[in-house]
Write a structure and sequence with these properties.
The protein is an alpha+beta fold. It is about 60% helix and about 5% strand. The protein has 30 helices and eleven strands. It is a multi-pass membrane protein.
Length: about 800
């Protein structure tokens, strides 16, 4: 007897040992969280994340082993923004100095520095300890600044620095994500309630997805000690984990419910779901994982971190679907369909074919060429703005001005430009050349003091390492990080520094800083992007050829995914490079897209789109294998998969769209970009472009192979009848049945209990019906005498008509 697939064996064990499987999963999730919390996060350092010249500058500075101190700046201005009263300003500054010196967290307090415009005083404060946890120790300083403002009427006292800025931003982000969770969870539950019509069935995917996110965050923390982690990883894990975790559970639950409705026992239904939908989950998860692995080819620490987090959460979601989900379903039994929501329950259990999907598909099936031209033209029109895409790294000018610390930063840089955008010059040379290096840098600073591209409110100071081999100096510019002025000052400085160091033998110099990092990162991505895109496209092609044995299907998958990605990029550019949507999404447009987003979005989109593409095209191929003409096969495949695909897409769009409400512009762009991509893919691509293309191609869909099914010429539309009076979808050669009773009842034959043998002889089955149903899969193709065995032709080892499986085209569908 043939050995069952691994997905079935695992599911059967979980279903027959539910408490053991559930207990092991709880232990696994708890262990991941505990071990991850104990190990702590190894974050990416500046020298690890840098590329090109700014990366070299970071490495030079790091080699100097400079002591890192958390710096705070207390800014005193008039409350009305006008001229500062000198006496009141000095009194407030003296109060600040006195209060700060009394704090244990403070190491030193500098003398007040007047602003060149006479409208502000700045008191520099140096905190004790390192910069890593300054945000946890800065609260006493913030309280002292607030007390000074309370005691000095008419003045505004702001505090901006290493710890205060990090604390203000992290608190805002924390509130954002709490709000996102409060919205996303009820929204996801509501969508699943509509899908299942029962509260427990709707809750299982959400609970399972949350457990996957928790386990993945713990595992990614452990992985950060091998590949350092960026701060955005936990957010990406939440986004990806909720999307794929809910989707995989949705596929599994829908199939298990269908099998129970067909008369199978609970364990047998779980086994069939594992062999069909479980296999779909494995194929989909593997595709997403390998696609995300393409980000490693970017050869950059941030992308490697994002790839690692995404791969971990997808792998955990696949594991949960194959192990603990069958156990939960077995333990819940028929309670999974309770408590029923009356109207929604009747809606989900409604029998008969939907009228909506055939109506939507009518243009693609009746006029495929016109539909193809119109739908592709619409997507290309949406993609046009992407031709003007500009890439830049996010900076302080991208932050929401609703955040108090951001407004304080603006006031600080208005009065003291050198505290805002800063270029860092780094030089490494032998210790005996230290005097020459310092002299050259002073000459460089003399040139910057005469140029309006650089800030002149303070004199830059050259820092020297203890071993006198490394020199650094910060040169400010009065322009915002993403402005043309900031870029021009960087280009000029990078031209001047080599000239200044030309007379210093063995000197290694570089210019870094936030502006330089953004410019270099964008250039690096433009250089590496062809490698990543090529890898993903090749993976998609190979995967589709392996699944469908068709080069035509593989090429069409690539073209459709490229079309969907281009359209979503166009939406992204139209929204975020312009100002019309600022009020709607609450952001300040910088005229650019975050530089890391397009590549990450492209990889994620291709991975997730493969999920839908495999599911839909496999249904179409199965109908064609059964003998249906191309148009009928396309109609049947899409209508039978539309419910699951639409439900999964709505869940993903809902989860992704929540990220568009966050304060950080990179998360807004990520959420809007992914939501737009999935929506376009599920609606325009799957309803219009794909069916129109496959209908137009006809028998060439399966090139270079061919199917042994019926003719590829025009087939009757849903409202037209075949000879004999029945619509095409009701003809016996195209029908799908889950049980003997349905076969007899449909065509007026005796019931299965009365004359099963007669029914199967009439239907062309060569094997005893009882044996077939016990095995759970038919061992001979439907109407074997009419055509060649499609399983031998398609390369599938296990035939299985009547299995509702998205990833194995050899299965006949119910």
């Amino acid at each position: 007897m043939r050995k069952k697939p691994a997905t079935v064996r695992i599911a059967r064990w979980s279903a027959t040992h539910p408490w053991s499987a559930i207990g092991l999963w709880v232990v696994f999730v708890a262990a991941c969280l505990v071990l991850g919390g104990a190990a702590g996060t190894n974050s990416i350092s500046d020298e690890e994340s840098g590329v090109r010249e700014s990366g070299r500058a970071g490495k030079i500075v790091h080699s100097g082993d400079f002591p890192e101190k958390a710096e705070e700046n207390v800014l005193i201005t008039a409350e009305d923004g006008g001229k500062l009263d000198p006496t009141a300003g000095r009194e407030a500054a003296a109060d600040v100095i006195e209060r700060m010196k009394a704090l244990d967290e403070v190491e030193a307090v500098g003398d007040p520095v007047p602003a060149p415009d006479g409208k502000a005083l700045l008191v520099p404060v140096t905190m004790k300890g390192d910069t890593e946890n300054a945000d946890r120790r800065v609260q006493p300083l913030l309280d002292a600044s607030a007390s000074v403002q309370d005691d000095h009427e008419g003045l505004r006292v702001d505090e901006v620095g290493t710890g205060s800025t990090a604390k203000g931003l992290s608190e805002t982000l924390g509130e954002d994500f709490k709000k996102a969770e409060l919205i996303s969870l009820p929204l996801t539950l509501l969508i699943l309630l509509v899908v299942f019509g029962a509260i427990i069935a709707a809750g299982v995917p959400v609970v399972l997805a949350l457990s996957c996110v928790g386990a993945a965050i713990g595992l990614s923390t452990l992985a950060s000690h091998v590949l350092p982690e960026t701060s955005a990883v936990s957010n990406v894990i939440l986004l990806m984990g909720m999307a794929v975790g809910v989707d995989y559970s949705l596929f599994y639950l829908k199939r298990e419910r269908e099998e129970r409705r067909a008369g199978k026992s609970h364990v047998d239904a779980i086994e069939v779901a594992a062999e069909t939908s479980g296999h779909t989950v494995v194929v989909s998860g593997t595709t997403v994982i390998v696609a995300m692995a393409g980000l490693y080819l970017a050869n950059e620490a941030t992308f490697a971190s994002l790839a690692t987090g995404s791969i971990i959460v997808v792998a955990v979601a696949v594991l949960a679907s194959l192990t603990v989900l069958p156990a939960l379903l077995a333990k819940l039994g028929r309670w999974v369909d309770k408590p029923k929501v009356p109207f929604l329950w009747r809606l989900t259990m409604r029998s008969g074919e939907s009228r909506v999907w055939p109506a939507l598909l009518r243009p693609a099936l009746s006029k495929p060429f016109i539909t193809l031209v119109v739908s592709v033209g619409a997507l290309l029109l949406l993609a046009v703005p992407a031709l003007d895409m500009k890439l830049k790294q996010p900076g302080s000018d991208d932050l929401s001005r609703d955040i108090a610390v951001v407004r304080a930063m603006d006031r600080l840089t208005d009065h003291f430009p050198s505290k805002g955008t800063v270029h860092q010059v780094a030089v490494r040379a032998p210790a005996d050349r230290a005097d020459d290096v310092e002299s050259a840098l002073n000459g460089l600073l003399g040139r910057t003091a005469k140029d309006e591209l650089f800030a002149h409110d303070s004199t830059p100071t050259v820092k020297v390492s203890e071993d006198r081999t490394v020199h650094t100096v910060d040169v400010g510019t009065p322009y915002q990080p993403k402005s043309d002025g900031a870029r021009q000052s960087l280009d000029l400085l990078r031209e001047w520094v080599p000239q200044a160091m030309a007379d210093v033998p063995d000197a290694e110099s570089a210019v870094g800083g936030k502006v330089a990092q953004g410019v270099d990162f964008t250039g690096h991505l433009e250089e590496r992007m062809p490698w990543v895109v090529g890898f993903v496209l090749l993976l998609t092609f190979v995967t589709m050829v392996m699944i469908f044995r068709s080069i035509a299907v593989a090429l069409s998958a690539i073209l459709l995914n490229l079309l969907s990605a281009a359209a979503s990029f166009g939406v992204l550019v139209a929204v975020f490079q312009n100002t019309w949507a600022e009020g709607v999404l609450d952001f300040h447009s910088s005229g650019a897209v975050v530089s890391w987003l397009p590549l990450f979005l492209f990889v994620v989109l291709f991975g997730l789109s493969m999920d839908y593409h495999v599911f839909v095209v496999s249904r179409i191929r199965e109908a064609a294998l059964a003998g249906a003409p191309t148009r009928t096969a396309v109609r049947e495949g899409i209508t039978r998969s539309a419910g699951v695909v639409t439900s999964a897409a709505i869940v993903m769009v809902g989860v992704f769209a929540i990220f568009g409400t966050l304060s950080m512009v990179e998360f807004k762009q990520l959420g809007v970009g992914l939501a737009a991509a999935i929506l376009l893919d599920a609606v325009i691509i799957r309803i219009y472009v794909l069916p129109a293309l496959m209908t137009a191609l006809g028998k060439w869909n399966w090139w270079p192979g061919k199917l042994s099914g019926g003719p590829d010429g025009p087939a009757p539309l849903p409202d037209q009848a075949e000879p004999g009076g029945r619509p095409a979808e009701e003809q016996p050669q195209y029908a799908r049945f889950a049980a003997e009773q349905q076969y007899g009842q449909q065509y007026g034959q005796p019931s299965a209990q009365q004359a099963p043998q007669q029914q199967y002889q009439q239907g062309g089955y060569q094997q005893a019906p009882q044996q077939q149903y016990q095995q759970g899969a038919y061992q001979q193709p439907y109407h074997q005498g009419d055509h060649q065995d499609p399983y031998q032709q398609g390369g599938y080892q296990q035939p299985g008509p009547y299995r509702d499986d998205a990833s194995r085209p050899g299965y006949y569908q119910q």
